[in-house]
Structure formats: C-alpha cells, structure tokens
C-alpha cells in the first residue's frame, strides 16, 4: 500500500512478505513487507505499541511461546521459510540471536554464560575449543580485558553495561547470522551506551543486526537502514540518512521531529 | 502549517531563529538600498551610516549562530527541523556577506566623494542595486512562506544581474580607454558593480537553501549563469570583446 513498503536492499538476508500478526482477536501487525540487508544495521523505530518489537520477535519465532499469538504470511532467512515444517526452532534461534532491553545473564559464571550456547548446540569437541570460543566472543564484545581474570565469577556481578556486552558475547558465541536487539541500551548510562554502539559498529562486519530503539539519535548513529512503524503498519523504510533528513511520509516526519501527529 | 511540537519551547526556538533571520534580512535590504543611494546621490552621511550599521548585521549573525548551535545541541533536530536550522545558519552567513558588500560600496563612495561622474554607469548601478534588493526581498518572502515557486524564480533572476554586470564592465572599460583620468572612478565603479553581482549570487544561494528546506534536495545545477566578465578582453583601438 505504501511505496516504501517494498524498499529492497541488494543483499537481502531476512525478508518478510505480507506478514500479519494477531494477539487473540487483536491485530498487531498489518501486511508487513520488509527486506533486511545482510551485514548491515537496520533500525526499527516507532511509538510504543506500533509493533516493532512484535516484528523483531517474529524473526526468530519468539512469538511461538505466546499461545494466543498467530503469525500469517511468510518470513524467509537466507531464502528459507522459517515457518517450514522441517525448520528446527532451536537451530533457527542459533542463527538468529537476540539481546534484550534488560541485560539478562544466566545466574552462572561469566565463562558458563558464554559456553552455554556452544555446549547445547554441540559446537565444540574439546575444552580447549570451548575456551577459544569464550575468549573470542568476549573479545568481539569488547569485554575480554575487563573480565579475563575473573571468568569464574558470576555474570550477574558485572555492571549493567558489562552485563549487556556479556549478553551480546553470549549471542555471538553460537555464531549467528543475525542478531536481534530489542532496545539494548535503554537501561544503560551514556558511557555504556556508547560502548555498545561502538560494538554494534564493529559487529556489523560479521553479522546482520536489527535493532529496535526509542532513541532517534541512536538509530541515526548506528543504522544504515531505518524502518518506521505506526499503529502496526510499516510506514516508511529506507536509507537512514534519507529517513532522518528528508522523510517522505508525514507520519514519519511528525514522529522523528517530535510533533503532534 | 506544520504540526506543533510536543515541546512548546522547541517551537518557540525555531520561530525565534526564523524571526531573527528575517530581521537580519530586512536590515541587509536597507543596507543595499542605502549604499546604492549614497553612491548615486554622493551622500557621504548616508554612506557613513551604512558603514556603521553593518555592525548590527554582524551582531545578528553571531546571535543566530549562537541560537542555532544551542538548538542543535539541545534538541538534536531531525528531518525538516534539521534542514531549517542548518539553513538559518547558512542564510545568515550569506546575508552577512551581502552586508559586507554594501559596506564596501559605501567605503568606495567615500573615496569617490570629490570625483565627477561620467556617462550612465551610476544609473546602471542603481538599477542593478534595485534588482539585487528585490531578489533579497523575494528570497526572504520565499523563506518565510516556504514558497518553492518564488525561490526557484530567483535562481533565474540572477542571470539578469549578470547581464547588467557584463554591460557595465564593457562600458567602464570604454571610459577608461577614452580617458585615463577616468580610471580611478571606473575601477571603483567596477568593484561596486562586482559587489552587487556577488550580492545576487548570495541571494541565489539563499534561494537554493529555501529549495532545500522545502524539498529536502538541492536544486539541479543547470541554472543559467551569465557573468562573462572573467572572459572579457580589451583590444586596442576597438571596443572590448567577449
């Protein structure tokens, strides 16, 4: 219905076609067609309740755990339908990792937080290999230098910003293709936020990142593409620089400039 | 009319930036008019007034700078708000330059106090001054009304100013060749014409800014440019050639 609904980046990794989502009788998303570019950062923005988190949770079928939730339409990851009967949802979530608003480390040691995923997915044959994954993941998350001499201490003992980076390290330990981030910085102070943003910048070379954020400036800083949602509709999707300097839709304009729509 | 911001003081700030830009524009219009009038009427008092008043233009520019920086830092404007704040910053700098040119015309007017004028050059300069002042008036109207049509029209007006500048250039060269005693006067008049031509260019820049504020894109770079004075040569015993 809207021209920008079919904005198609060159190298699409995740693609949603005619996606409708219902919670019981209430429809939360309407006919979403969104293509996400590989190895880039896509920001989903919009007022609370617009459906951006709902869509994010569709991408790794997190909505499956909500009994009244129904997803229609098709979502593909690398060309494969994620709802196909032969898709193992555990292996899907290994490919599409997630980081939440509040850091949620397991009540385990820092080491075990990272090692948990690779262990259950049977990714390693030896302790040495596992050690390597833990070290590499913590390094990529920019946390290694801060925790290398206390890997056996509980993850919950870290500061908020460190915990969030631990959760990111945990997500990348299982070598996902896509990382979904649901307001990853909203519980962090500006310094920790800056660290996570810097991390996102580095991670996008290896991973595709989809981030939901309420901070317009954050979306403008970290993302290449931005999609604006309003009342369950995808209003506008395009290059971030265009969306934030010259948006096409009046609703986008009103939202990002802080106007009464 | 745009929707209001949720934060009212943000609206007030943006309006204030716009108003200050308009006040500055009005001041600059007067400067153009008075500098040319002072020249044509050999009115030294008025020329002095233009030189003094230029300070007010400079002060306004610096106030607009401060306010736009403050808005950028505190509000982090986006989309059309961002374009409008950035444009106010650029427009004020263009207006400041126009003010400087008017001041320079007045300085030269003071030098020419006791020199007798020749030919019709001053009349042509007066006409040029009126055209440039109208361009500034129109562009400020376009700015305040976000009027794309007027802004784009101004892009074309500049061509006419360029033509008059070319004509004047030739005319003044002829006077200098006729009588070397005219050189001081003509050189100053040439620079004055040049100043007016540059004012037209700055008004055009402002029109481009208005185009950007309204549409989010800069106008295409194919507008006619007619200033040929940089390619003119003088041959002996004949008129100047292009």
Keywords:
heterodimer, A: 261 residues, alpha/beta, Rossmann fold, six-stranded mixed sheet, four-stranded antiparallel sheet, 10 helices, 35% helix, globular, disordered N terminus, B: 242 residues, mainly alpha, Methane Monooxygenase Hydroxylase, Chain G, domain 1, 77% helix
Question: How would you describe the overall organization of this protein?
Answer:
- The complex is a heterodimer of chains A (261) and B (242).
- Chain A has 10 helices and 10 strands.
- Chain A has 261 residues and is of the alpha/beta class.
- Chain A has one domain: 3-Layer(aba) Sandwich (Rossmann fold).
- In chain A, the strands form 2 sheets. In chain A, strands 6-7-8-3-9-10 form a 6-stranded mixed sheet, sandwiched between helices. A 4-stranded antiparallel sheet of chain A has the order 2-1-4-5, with helices on one face.
- In chain A, strand 7, helix 7 (190-203) and strand 8 (208-212) form a beta-alpha-beta unit.
- The longest helix of chain A is centred in the middle third of the chain and has 14 residues, at 127-140.
- Chain B is mainly α and 242 residues long.
- Chain B has a single domain (8-231), classed as Methane Monooxygenase Hydroxylase, Chain G, domain 1.
- Chain B is built from 6 helices and no strands.
- The longest helix of chain B is centred in the first third of the chain and has 33 residues, at 8-40.
- The relative contact order of chain B is 0.13.
- The chains are: A alpha/beta (261), B mainly alpha (242).
- At the A-B interface, helix 8 and helix 10 of A face helix 3 of B.
H/E element order of chain A: EEEHEEHEHHHHEHEHEEHH
Mean pLDDT of chain B: 91
Secondary-structure arrangement, i.e. CATH architecture of chain B? Up-down Bundle
In the CATH scheme, the class of chain B would be Mainly Alpha
How are the secondary structure elements laid out?
The complex is a heterodimer of chains A (261) and B (242).
Chain A: E1 12-23, E2 26-37, E3 41-45, H1 52-58, E4 69-77, E5 80-81, H2 89-95, E6 96-99, H3 110-120, H4 127-140, H5 144-147, H6 160-173, E7 178-182, H7 190-203, E8 208-212, H8 216-222, E9 225-230, E10 233-239, H9 240-245, H10 250-256
Helix pairs in contact in A: 3-4, 3-6, 4-6, 6-7
Chain B: H1 8-40, H2 44-75, H3 79-111, H4 121-145, H5 148-178, H6 183-215
């Amino acid at each position: 219905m809207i021209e920008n609904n079919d904005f198609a980046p060159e190298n699409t990794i995740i693609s949603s076609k005619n996606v409708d989502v219902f919670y019981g009788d209430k429809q939360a998303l309407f006919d979403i067609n969104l293509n996400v570019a590989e190895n880039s950062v896509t920001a989903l923005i919009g007022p609370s309740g617009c459906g951006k988190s709902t869509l994010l949770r569709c991408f790794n079928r997190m909505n499956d755990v909500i009994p009244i939730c129904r997803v229609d339409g098709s979502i593909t990851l690398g060309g494969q339908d994620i709802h196909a009967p032969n898709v193992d949802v555990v292996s899907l979530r290994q490919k599409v990792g997630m980081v939440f608003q509040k850091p949620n480390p397991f009540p385990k040691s820092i080491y075990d937080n990272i090692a948990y995923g690779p262990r259950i997915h049977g990714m390693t044959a030896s302790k040495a290999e596992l050690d390597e994954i833990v070290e590499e993941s913590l390094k990529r998350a920019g946390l290694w230098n801060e925790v290398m001499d206390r890997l056996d201490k509980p993850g919950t003992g870290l500061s908020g910003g460190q915990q969030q980076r631990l959760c990111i390290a945990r997500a990348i330990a299982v070598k996902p293709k896509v990382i979904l981030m649901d307001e990853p910085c909203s519980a962090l102070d500006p310094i920790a936020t800056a660290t996570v943003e810097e991390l996102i910048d580095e991670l996008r070379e290896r991973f595709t990142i989809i981030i939901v954020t309420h901070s317009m400036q954050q979306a403008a800083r970290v993302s290449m593409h931005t999609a604006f949602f309003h009342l369950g509709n995808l209003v506008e999707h395009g290059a971030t620089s265009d969306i934030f300097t010259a948006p096409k839709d009046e609703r986008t304009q009103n939202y990002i400039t802080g106007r009464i729509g | 009319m745009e929707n209001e911001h949720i934060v009212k003081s943000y609206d007030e700030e943006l309006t204030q930036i716009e108003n200050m830009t308009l006040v500055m524009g009005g001041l600059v219009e007067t400067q153009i008019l008075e500098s040319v009038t002072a020249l044509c009427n050999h009115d030294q008092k008025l020329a002095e007034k233009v030189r003094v008043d230029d300070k007010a233009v400079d002060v306004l520019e610096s106030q607009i700078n401060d306010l736009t920086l403050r808005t950028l830092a505190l509000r982090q404007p986006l989309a059309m708000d961002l374009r409008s704040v950035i444009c106010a910053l650029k427009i004020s700098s263009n207006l400041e330059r126009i003010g400087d040119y008017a001041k320079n015309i007045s300085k030269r007017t003071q030098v020419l106090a006791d020199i007798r004028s020749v030919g019709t050059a001053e009349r042509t300069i007066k006409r040029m001054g009126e055209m440039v002042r109208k361009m500034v008036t129109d562009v400020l109207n376009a700015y305040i009304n976000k009027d794309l049509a007027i802004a784009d029209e101004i892009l074309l007006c500049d061509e006419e100013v360029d033509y008059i500048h070319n004509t004047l250039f030739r005319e003044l060269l002829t006077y200098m060749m006729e009588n070397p005693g005219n050189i001081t006067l003509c050189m100053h008049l040439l620079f004055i014409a040049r100043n007016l031509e540059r004012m037209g260019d700055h008004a055009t820049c402002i029109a481009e800014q208005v185009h950007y504020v309204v549409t989010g894109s800069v106008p295409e770079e194919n507008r006619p440019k007619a200033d040929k004075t940089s390619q003119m040569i003088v041959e002996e015993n004949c008129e100047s050639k292009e």
